[in-house]
Amino acid sequence: MADRKRLDGRVAFITGGGRGIGRAIALAYAAEGARLALSARTAAELEDTARLVAERFGGDVITAAADVSSREQVERAVALALERYGAIDVMVNNAGNIGPVGRVWDNDPEEWARTVAVHLMGVFYGCRAVLPGMLERGRGRIVNMSGVGGPNMSAYDAAKTGIVNLTENLALELADTPITVNAISPGSIHTRMWEERGIWRWLSATRRPTSEACR
Predict the structure, then answer these.
(1) For the chain, which domains are there?
(2) Which one, of 90, 81, 94, 85, lies nearest residue 24 by Cα?
(3) Are strands 90-93 and 61-65 parallel, antiparallel or unpaired?
(4) Mean pLDDT within 183-202
(5) Spatial contact of 26 and 14, defined as CB atoms under 8 Å apart
(6) pTM summary value
(7) How many angstroms separate the CA atoms of 59 and 135, rounded?
(8) Residue 13: helix, strand or coil by DSSP?
(9) What contacts 109, CB < 8 A, 6 or more positions away?
(10) Angstrom distance (rounded) from CA 193 to CA 25
(11) Which letter does DSSP use for residue 184 in this model?
């Protein structure tokens, strides 16, 4: 029993697991013995994460390329995980994008709406897909990634605020069940996504960032 890890036998489904924060979460869960189901839009990045997990921990991993703004793709990825493992014990809704950077009146409406769809609708679809099974089994944990962008990131901030409110509603709705749901704001993390949009340079010039650990 001394060698037993905290998540031995548990299954964690992680969206946005191909790189950045999602990859770091996947490696942390694998280190604790969890079996993993990873989704992201880019299959090659998912395979890189799966390879790292196998090399470091020899863990059990399946991957499914999916866009979280699509209900059908999310449900298909969850179904694949359930077919493989029979249950999902932990859902980490992590997938996201930066969205348009600039003043509200200069933002492209389609890009703005896309950002909200990826963040907020992605969390909604993920929770909706896993909760029936969790309730049936009488166990489950949901972790939704929120956050704060800053000026000129209205779509990102609006979507992340929506995630917080959605999480609060879910927590109340699940209060009489064994299922818990929480939102986590990890702070300003130096990921490739933030680097590509120039956000990290702006953050570094205006306030102290939190971490460079997830590049």
Answers:
(1) 11-206 (3.40.50.720)
(2) 94
(3) unpaired
(4) 61
(5) yes
(6) 0.86
(7) 26
(8) strand
(9) none
(10) 16
(11) E
